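User: structure tokens for this one?
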Amino acid sequence: MKYRRFGRTGLFVSPLALGTIGFGKANIGESITQAEADRMVAAAIDVGVNLFDTSNVYGGGQAEAMLGRALGARRKDALVSSKVHARKGPGPNDVGQSRVHIMRALEDSLRALGTDWIDLYQIHQFDPLTPFEDVMRTLDDAVRQGKVRYIGCSNLLAWQVMKASKVAALHGLEEFVSVQAYYSPAGRDIERELVPLIVDQQLALLAYSPLAGGLLTGQVARQRKPDSTTRRGKTNFPPVDMERGYKLIDTLLEIGSGHDATVAQVALAWLIAQPHLSSALIGADNLEQLHSNLRAADLALSPEELAQIEAVSRLPREYPSWATDLSAPRSPLESVNKK
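Assistant:
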């Protein structure tokens, strides 16, 4: 496993991380038992995976506890990330990012995970009702108390990430070190605004649903529509333009045939090759599928193959990007020295 930098933190993470959304009562996909979770976590650590992502609402609220039990004495070998925001009870303050809810949810997560600290604690989405001044100060307190090592965010717009950063800097508080977002060769929307921000601010990028919610597992093709019993067959999440998706799958199949690799492995290999990616969060319904996906870390695609996938999955340019392209100088001094 070749590790890569986690933003500006000085940490190093595996390019593939294990997501736990299927642990327990699955939110989507198949439910995974504790015994299967134990095997998956052990197998991931054995091949060098050191990042495990969860949330206090995954698996009907069971995933954190299952991950904690699966890690057991190997907790020191792992970086654990979890999240806060979603509703955790019937009360009016059992949801969101108020100081009351974050502090209560954090204590609950620590107990569930069976640990004294969470390596990366992320807000799960934007909270329009709680000012970033309150959110960032509460998260800063968690870091200062030693209960959290770093803080991050998920599902935020670029301006929201930047606003939170500036609010934290203004008040001398901990800043986000990472962004977790949907990113896949079938869904490259974050390249418009979030990726330029991530690169500029030296943030870590964690990609969730890298296989586009089961679309790129190899079970779907132009002549083989999603089965109604599968995750992709049950729901179009994340949303995908299926015609573009089928063109992408055709290309992945062609490239995979030259490597004896699956569609999923080629898709993950493309993602790993993106220089702005820190780690892609992979899930699996069983140990065999996990082993198969993990082999993507050793699959090296040629520049020509990467370019093929880039071309078929590229997004159309939107304003103001195309306007910027028209006026962009070919070199930094061109516009200054132009006569």
